[in-house]
Structures are given as structure tokens and as C-alpha cells.
Amino acid sequence: MEKMSGLKKFALLNLGTFLVTIGVYFFKFPNNFSTGGVTGIAVVMGPLTPNISPGTYNMAINVVLLLIGCIFLGKRFVLMTLYSSMTMAVAITLLERYYPMSGPFTNQPMLELIFAVMLPAVGCAILFNIDASNGGTDIIAMLMKKYTSMDIGRGLFISDFFITIATFFVFDVQTGLFSLTGLMAKSLVVDSVLENFNLCKYFTIITTKPEEICDFISTALNRGATTYDASGAFTHEHKTIVITVLRRNQAILLQKYIKRVDPHAFIMITNTSEIIGKGFRETA
Question: pLDDT value at position 281?
């Protein structure tokens, strides 16, 4: 992916952590929804050990998994994950003390489930996109992604499935079904959000003005392009094909420019989220 400034990455790290914390504390815990993860374990264990708070479980299990992550995923990943998981654990502990939740906000469990799934899923996707995580079973999913061909969404589903099943036995069938629904939605949302974060536009441009277009791509957009000669099958008119890959905001600028300098250009635009190479996602 493109290099990101330290300040921007730190802001995204905090944003992702904030979204996960809000979703977990205000919507997940009060409804006993367990869509997996360390917070899911905390939800399941809460009724079994009432003297130990969910925040305590969250912190203790994260420490163990962080040690595993340090060995296999590197110190940089672990430092960001440690910051995120500890910040969340401290925030939950403070919320339990100063803003205790005696029950759900509403009597609409499906509405609460939407927020319990969407907020943490978007938060996790933001963290995954900067090569961090919120700790817990997210680390297991990252390990699966690194050492297998499995994507993060499927890795999350597998690592969290058995934790979610436990809600059927600890609570009731309704809570278990809601939790299982939330788990399936969570894995889909994480993959979808990650794909949209990395979405780029692949341009194939057939034009008679290649110099102007390539100059705009390289100077105004700071991107590269490749050209090759072509000719029309019917008219045999000589043309040039320009191919390039741009971010979505850059794609709009290029379209406007081409319309101005070569209104007769033929443009094919394809969405793609897996771009590997200089300026995008590194191969290593």
C-alpha cells in the first residue's frame, strides 16, 4: 500500500480502536452478543465468573495472544496491536466504572446487533488496513492470512466460530442465534470494508493524444503509465493504448482531463483492489 505518514496512521489506529470499543461496550456486552474474539470470550465467561469483569478477561487473554503475535508477526505489528488492545481494555474498564450499563439501550435486539457488528467490524478493518489489529483472535486471523491462502474475513470466522457457539449453552437459543448471525455478518463486513479501502481504478485508454495524457498522469497525479501501439480493426487508424492504475480521487481527475484533451478517446475503467508493486502494496 502507499506509504502513510506516522500521524495519519496513529489517527487511524485510534479511530479503529474507538469504533471497536463503542460497539463492544455499548451494544455487545449489554445484549450478551458473542461474535467471537476476546470480547466474545469475556461475554461468555461473565455469567460464569461474576466476580471478574469482562474488561479483566479482555486484558489477560490479549497479553497471551500478543506474545504469540510478537513471535510470528513482528514487533511493529505487535506494538500497534498492543497500543490498540490496551487502550481498549483500559477504556472498557473506565466505562464499567463511570458509565455502567445495566441493560441494552433499546428493546430491539436486531437493531442493537447491527451496531454490535458494524462498529467493531469497520474498526477492525481500519486496523487491518494499517497492518495492526485489536488483539485477541484478530491475531489468529492475521496468522492464518500470513501462513495460508485464507483471507482475513474467513480467518476471523473460523477462529471465532466455537466461541460464538458457546453462547447457545451459556445464555439461550435466541442470544446464540443473534450471535451466530452477527459472526457471519462480521466476516463479510470486514472483507468488504478492506476491499473498499484498497479499491483502485484500472484504466485502459485508447487515444490519439498519448503524450498529453501520460504527462498529466506522471506530473499532475504522480503515477506511472504504460503505452503500446494499436490500430483500429476497421479503420486501421493508428492509436496508442495507455494503461494505468489510480486511486479513486485521481481517477475522477483523469477522466475530466481526457474529456478535455481527447473527447473521442475510448476509456475502459475496471475496479480492482489487489494492486501489487511500487506505489501500492509491496510484495514483501
Answer: 63
